Amino acid sequence: MNAPESGQPGRVTLVGGGPGSAGLLTLAAAQALREAEVVLYDRLAPTDDLRALAPNARLIDVGKLPGNHAIPQGDIEKLIVSHALAGSRVVRLKGGDPYIFGRGSEEVLACHSHGIPVTVVSGVTSAIAVPAAAGIPLTHRGMSHAFTVISGHAPLTENELEGLVLLGSTIVVLMGVGTLPTLTQGLLRHGMTADLPVAIIERGFSATQRTTIANLGTILGEAARASVTSPAVLVIGEVVRLAFTGDTSAEDLISRAGEFAA
Prior knowledge:
Layout: E1 11-16, H1 27-35, E2 38-41, H2 50-53, E3 58-61, H3 73-85, E4 89-94, H4 104-112, E5 118-121, H5 126-133, E6 147-151, H6 158-167, E7 170-174, H7 180-189, E8 197-202, E9 210-215, H8 219-225, E10 232-236, H9 250-260
Helix pairs in contact: 3-4
């Protein structure tokens, strides 16, 4: 990892690509991609139009699948650093927001340790955008005044489960399909009501987006029947009652909301 002859490294921009739709890229993200000479991208980043978005860049796929990290995180950081030290303008394009379960801070620290300047461009997080795409607001007057975003890549502790139940707010779970059984059973064990609505939104913003809705006591069976798979966002809370589907009338939605309005 030698510095260029000028002695000046390139620069790195960590770009949040949002939940996968190029239309949700920010102006700053689009500009960084236009100027990029190297783009290292994830599988959940908006990649369909990536060649058009980054016309002058070398594109490098460093995406990870659940349980299968073809390129370990440490090697991704080495790639970022090596291209920047060679003088390139590097964009690390990540799905969602770089600082929300995206290991963006680890990549920033790796760059800083080599004296490489880094800019972080925030992205639209799937924790908010994907429920919205399914017609689910995370807060609603009289229904929920807060929401908690958690990672479901590993089972929660008993203290964490108890805290979520006591908090009583909307719960959003990313990467939670694999741990759905332990999550639902844990919440029930700590006193969360079995009839609390739950939604699983798969492949948000794609042509195959699909929402499965049940309640905490039945969602495991419904998810199995629907063969739910990752990537998906889970929403647990009364706000799921406001989910809009093709067979939901406006009158029904207004009636549901009115039951909770202050």
